[in-house]
Design a protein that fits this description.
Layout: E1 8-12, E2 19-23, E3 28-32, H1 35-45, E4 60-66, E5 70-74, E6 79-82, E7 90-95, E8 100-106, E9 111-115, E10 129-131, H2 154-166, E11 179-180
Parallel strand pairs: 3-10, 6-11
Antiparallel strand pairs: 1-2, 2-5, 3-4, 4-9, 6-7, 7-8, 8-9
């Protein structure tokens, strides 16, 4: 992991056996309303003793961190991946000790989308934008001025691109997830 200056946040599972250290500020704090995130959230929340994944409005909150600024500090042997379909390019990773959703990773991506609930309430990065709002549940309306985009906006993509450029256009491989999650409803 690079040695950037700045804030250190710990993202931990509910029971504390799995933890990540995130250094610096996230690329962006976002709420995703896409069907895939909602489907995964429902599956994860159905697991025994699982903690919440989705917000009351059906969104999933993430803090996106560069892969070179986040590392697993304990419990990597407890991490299990889940894909919505066998060929899905996105994997979501849970802590098998307490069924806590930890992060989402896009195949070939240079960032990890850490589930915001993994940070202590007073350490959660702020919400900066909503994405994929075209997929939100019927009846969900927004009454604030937070930017809300029907898809992934140019602003969202620009933040990812500038973070990737700062990394020298590298996408580090995350190799500490050891297996697939069992018992997740299909």
């Amino acid at each position: 992991m690079a040695k950037p200056q700045g804030r250190h946040r710990i993202a931990a599972c509910r029971c504390g056996l799995v933890a990540f250290e995130a250094v610096g500020e996230p690329i962006v704090g976002a709420a995703c309303y896409c069907t895939s995130c909602r489907t995964a959230g429902e599956r994860f929340e159905a697991l025994p003793e699982a903690s919440p994944v989705m917000e009351a409005d059906g969104s999933t909150r993430f803090a996106l961190y560069r892969k070179d600024r986040i590392r697993c500090v304990r419990g990597s042997d407890l991490l299990r991946e889940h894909r919505l379909t066998p060929e899905a390019p996105t994997r979501r990773v849970i802590a098998s000790c307490c069924n806590a959703a930890m992060f989402l990773e896009f195949k070939g991506g240079h960032w990890l989308s850490v589930y915001n609930q993994r940070f202590a309430p007073n350490e959660q990065p702020p919400l900066e934008m909503r994405t994929m709002t075209r997929d939100r549940r019927a009846g969900v309306e927004f009454a604030d001025t937070l930017p809300s985009y029907k898809t992934h906006s140019g602003r969202f993509m620009w933040r990812l691109l500038t973070a990737w450029a700062a990394m020298g256009f590298k996408a580090p491989k995350i190799d500490y997830v050891k297996g697939e999650a069992n018992g997740i409803p299909g």
